[in-house]
């Protein structure tokens, strides 16, 4: 065998084990916290945690299939029979997915938007947001004060939205060219329609001011705020060079002049305001030399803007910090989830959505074997862009068996497009398409399903879905599991695997009673520190080893690795007892195979 072929074979072998690396975990034990779902005043959410900075994709796939999830480098698993809101891992086989009528409408709505047949109505603030794996929210929105009479829909003219986007783009170019400071957050431009009663007062010759924006004043305020936050010496220098609204508006207009033409309007600045005027006369030399953008008026100018086709692009990139993504995340958290500004920082964002313990597996082909998709395995950010504007980011993990959806944040201005639902449909399609490159890639994992939380039940609309039994780790069709969950939040779902959805209600009822009694008996036996796995597990029952056997657990101690059986001669009985108790719990929560495969780090 040639050295080149030998190298390729070794790479293929490494990829099967997660590509040259080990999973190293530290057990954080049980944790109690406030619940974000039921909003209980007590610390009623109970999980078990592991910390890891190194995790193979195969090991994380196995952990997912035992009910674990990750947040950054922290892995957590609900203690199902104790926590207030039991969370079941939910997945669907992509090739079996059948979109509902509502999901088909989501696709058509976005296609109409891209074709220019539909305009997006910017949303000021959502009411009762539906928190989910993809950040989806309901489409009911709070209307801006004074924007419309009660009971009427608040609509924004397409031309107004187009003007606002042009100003925003001009402001960004001014930052890039250092005409505006780079350490400020540029506010979004707001263009308002001038009431007809005021137009005559503002009329200039044969032109009328139809729309106006005071964005220059907001930018000046943002610059002032940033400068006053700096040291006093810097403030003194900044005071001399502080931009005025008049200067800012002129810089914005100059930047827009470089873009092209506003059909049917001329644009001028006056006392810091950017005004959009009706154009009813020909172009003059003064217009070309002065601060205005002008074109001959046409009756269809507004329609042309409205019918403008848009281009949607999706870019899949490895998980990394991106300032543009962070700014979108910040806007999303502030406007959709009503987070406080001081609670959002680059550090917390990185910990939550950028940091990952997953060891990357690069894309490669192995002698025709279909093992790795073109992008490879690991953690990714899927960017959604419309005409190069970032409107959504999906945070996902691509693993040997699945695409696992972690989070999605989107531009609140595009709330009416249901981007959470649309991104889920795109991710399901991605799995279907890439199964041709990776035969094991079959499933789409939607995160946790919480039957006791109405806002999380929408995940069951992606059919046909399966829920993971929290005791035996078998996958159970949702339609089969639902009768149990309707009765009790925590249930041993695999007890109903023999009952089909078409079974008689009497049979299902009898099985439900038996299962409920079994759970109650188990909970009576339970202790504070033991997990539900202590009672039974198909995986463990198939093993010839005793459940208390921890001798083969792989441990890292002082930089060296041992099996516990090689270091268990610990002289201090108290230390030995404490360590063995920790290892027994660890083995129960991760399972026999992973406890002997991953490295248990003693700190």
UniProtKB/TrEMBL annotation:
Disordered: annotated span: 504-547
Organism domain of life: Eukaryota
Biased composition (Acidic residues): 517-541
Transmembrane region(s): none
Keyword hit for Acyltransferase: yes
SUPFAM superfamilies associated with the record: Acyl-CoA N-acyltransferases (Nat)
Example GO molecular function: arginyl-tRNA--protein transferase activity
Function: Involved in the post-translational conjugation of arginine to the N-terminal aspartate or glutamate of a protein. This arginylation is required for degradation of the protein via the ubiquitin pathway.
Family to which this protein belongs: Belongs to the R-transferase family.
Name of this protein: Arginyl-tRNA--protein transferase
Upper classification of the organism: Eukaryota, Viridiplantae, Streptophyta, Embryophyta, Tracheophyta
């Amino acid at each position: 065998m040639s050295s080149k072929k030998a190298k390729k074979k070794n790479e293929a072998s490494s990829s099967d084990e997660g590509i040259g690396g080990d999973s190293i975990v530290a057990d954080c034990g049980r944790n109690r916290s406030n619940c974000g779902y039921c909003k209980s005043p007590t610390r009623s959410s109970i999980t078990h945690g592991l910390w890891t900075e190194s995790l193979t994709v195969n090991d994380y796939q196995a952990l997912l299939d035992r009910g674990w999830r990750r947040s950054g480098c922290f892995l957590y698993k609900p203690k199902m029979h104790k926590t207030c809101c039991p969370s079941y891992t939910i997945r669907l086989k992509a090739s079996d997915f059948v979109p509902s009528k509502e999901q088909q409408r989501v696709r058509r709505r976005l296609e109409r938007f891209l074709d220019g047949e539909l305009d997006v109505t910017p949303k000021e603030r959502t009411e009762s947001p539906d928190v989910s794996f993809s950040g989806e929210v309901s489409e009911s929105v709070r209307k801006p004060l004074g924007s419309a009479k009660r009971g009427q829909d608040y609509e924004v003219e397409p031309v107004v939205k187009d003007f606002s986007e042009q100003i925003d783009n001009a402001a960004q170019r001014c930052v890039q060219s250092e005409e505006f400071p780079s350490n400020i957050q540029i506010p979004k431009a707001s263009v308002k329609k001038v009431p007809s009663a005021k137009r005559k007062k503002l009329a200039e010759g044969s032109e009328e001011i139809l729309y106006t924006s005071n964005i220059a004043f907001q930018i000046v305020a943002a610059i002032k705020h940033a400068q006053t936050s700096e040291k006093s010496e810097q403030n003194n220098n900044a005071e001399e060079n502080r931009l005025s609204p008049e200067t800012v508006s002129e810089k914005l207009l100059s930047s827009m002049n470089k873009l092209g033409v506003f059909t049917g309007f001329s644009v001028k600045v006056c006392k810091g305001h950017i005004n959009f005027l009706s154009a009813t006369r020909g172009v003059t030399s003064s217009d070309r030399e002065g601060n205005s953008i002008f074109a001959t008026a046409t009756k269809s100018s507004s329609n042309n803007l409205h019918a403008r086709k848009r281009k949607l692009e999706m870019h899949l990139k490895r998980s990394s910090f991106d300032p543009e993504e962070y700014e979108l995340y910040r806007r999303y958290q502030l406007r959709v989830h009503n987070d406080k500004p001081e609670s959002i920082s680059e550090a917390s964002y990185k910990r939550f959505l950028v940091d990952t313990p997953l060891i990357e597996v690069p894309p490669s082909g192995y002698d025709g074997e279909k093992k790795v998709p073109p992008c490879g395995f690991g953690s990714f950010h899927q960017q959604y862009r419309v005409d190069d504007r970032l409107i959504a980011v999906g945070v996902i993990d691509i693993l040997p068996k699945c695409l696992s959806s972690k989070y999605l944040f989107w531009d609140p201005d595009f709330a009416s497009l249901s981007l959470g639902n649309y991104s889920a449909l795109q991710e399901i399609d991605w799995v279907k398409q890439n199964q041709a490159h990776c035969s094991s890639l079959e499933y789409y994992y939607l995160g946790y399903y919480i039957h006791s939380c109405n806002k999380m039940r929408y995940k069951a609309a992606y059919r046909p879905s399966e829920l993971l039994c929290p005791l035996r780790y078998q996958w159970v069709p949702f339609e089969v599991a639902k009768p149990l969950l309707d009765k009790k939040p925590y249930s041993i779902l695999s007890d109903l695997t023999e009952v089909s959805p078409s079974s008689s209600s009497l049979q299902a009822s009898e099985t439900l009673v038996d299962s409920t009694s079994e759970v109650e008996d188990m909970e009576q036996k339970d202790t504070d520190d033991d997990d539900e796995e202590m009672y039974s597990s198909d995986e463990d029952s198939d093993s010839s080893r005793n459940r208390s056997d921890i001798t083969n657990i792989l441990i890292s101690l002082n930089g060296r690795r041992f099996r516990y059986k090689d270091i268990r001669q610990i002289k201090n009985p108290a230390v030995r007892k404490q360590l063995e108790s920790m290892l027994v719990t660890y083995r129960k929560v991760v399972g026999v195979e992973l406890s002997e495969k991953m490295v248990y780090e003693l700190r």
